[in-house]
Write a structure and sequence with these properties.
The structure is a homodimer. The first copy, chain A, has about 240 residues and is of the alpha+beta class. Chain A has seven helices and ten strands. Strand 10 of chain A pairs antiparallel with strand 7 of chain B. Chain A binds a DNA duplex (30 and 30 nucleotides) through helix 3.
Chain lengths: ~240, ~240
DNA sequence: ATGAAGACATAGGACGTCCAACCTCTCGTT
DNA sequence: AACGAGAGGTTGGACGTCCTATGTCTTCAT
């Protein structure tokens, strides 16, 4: 379940993250120049530059033209945690350490709204997974996933599953998954979820319903999520022209 | 307001956006291969690849190894109704009739948070517009726009302005506006906005902060919005590959 | 007919090179 | 002492080249 392929670019990225961690670099500390690191690692400056650009986009470093490269936000996470889900990335971007916890999971008959979105026959079964996502051990997202049984995902233990659902789906279906379509609204926290998010009933939360489609517009997973909006913000980039 | 970081990469990006628009390409339509476009534009395949990668990150296209490059989300809003703003579309989609009302407008010194996002000098002036968006005469969105004065928008009467701000900006700056970057969170409705949205204080609302950029990543407008979440849902399409 | 092998087109990845733009520091002229 | 020119280091941008990985389509032997 390696989402990170072992390309040189990723090696370089990993090296830089290690470098910052091991030398205990703090915010605004300067990193070695592109050229020197590239020489040390035996890669071209292009490759290193690409790694730096990526790290900058991820908010780890800041590059300043004509001056040098500096630590922006020391890396909170090492590689493997990065594999869970897109939401881990969001949490990471905000500066927390993400983790998952499975509350329950079972095969159930699809509820009407789910069945509707997934275009299932009546009485069709779905794998139901109830999880929470934690940021620095604090619960911030409550997740319910519904995956049609007919897809036939193979997982040794759903209870212990911490992999990337999207990756697993893509691999099992052997087709690229194309998009998540999400609807977002604000909502008052209902009582039954309150205990999981450890927030008072009625607190404003982001409620998201998200559907993953194949290229053929077949819905393969439907998820309901509740975000603790005090900690997590959603980020959209939308093209307007 | 110098708007010309006219790098080749940006030229290529702009060209591809135009290409998709002018040929009216839709989702899943195939784009010419990297090599052929690069040859047509007289740039190296590297440069073109970089543009493609960027466009993919922005959700406009999808690249598939060994197959080709495809349109993910056409970069323009095909709108006739969309006279005023993307939000009119959202309201329309939900089944209401959108309209606007200007509450107040003036030139003010940019508040710190706004000045920060727009990268303005201290004490720089901005055009401040306070509006509400109505769905079937019912207020559903509260909007505050901040536009740098130096852009020099020409409007006969801001009070009566109901045009499309984005269009006006694009025309005045004579450059395509590229993307909106938005941050969304849930929030309890504060008292000062309560009267405009006609909702009780403390009601859960969607709070959105939205920035419009040029192709060169210059921020040209910053907006704060509050959505009545009982009526409006936001809709995101995010590429996950 | 069928299926395997191979040709071809496409994106993925990396390298080495060159020059531009930007910043800091030093050193010589005034 | 003040200032400006210039050297040297740093990131920014682009090019051309080479090879690899992945799909698709054709061709040919069975």
């Amino acid at each position: 379940m390696a989402i990170t392929t072992d390309t040189r670019l990723n090696q370089v990225k990993a090296h830089m993250l290690n470098y910052i961690s091991q030398n205990k670099l703090k915010r605004n500390d300067q990193l070695p120049s592109e050229a020197s690191i590239a020489k040390d690692l035996g890669v071209s400056r292009n490759t290193l530059r690409e790694a730096y650009v990526t790290l900058e986009n991820e908010g780890v470093i800041v590059r300043r033209h004509g001056i040098g490269t500096f630590v922006a936000q020391p890396p909170y996470i090492q590689d493997s945690l990065n594999e869970f889900s897109p939401f881990a990335q969001i949490i990471q971007d905000v500066g927390y350490t993400p983790s998952f916890k499975t509350l329950s999971t079972e095969i159930v008959e699809a509820p009407p709204d789910v069945s509707d979105v997934l275009k299932l026959k009546a009485n069709a079964k779905v794998r139901y997974i109830q999880r929470i996502v934690l940021a620095d051990q604090k619960p911030v997202i409550y997740v319910e996933d519904f995956i049609p049984s007919e897809i036939g995902l193979q997982v040794t233990s759903w209870e212990a599953f911490e992999g990337n659902l999207v990756e697993l789906l893509a691999k099992t279906l052997n087709t690229p998954l194309h998009q998540i379509q999400s609807y977002i609204r604000a909502q008052s926290l209902p009582a039954d979820i309150s205990e999981f998010l450890k927030l008072p009933v009625g607190a404003p939360i982001l409620s998201v319903r998200s559907t993953i489609y194949t290229l053929d517009n077949q819905a393969v997973t439907f998820s309901k999520l509740c975000f603790n909006s005090e900690i997590i913000e959603l980020n959209i980039v939308r093209m307007i022209r």
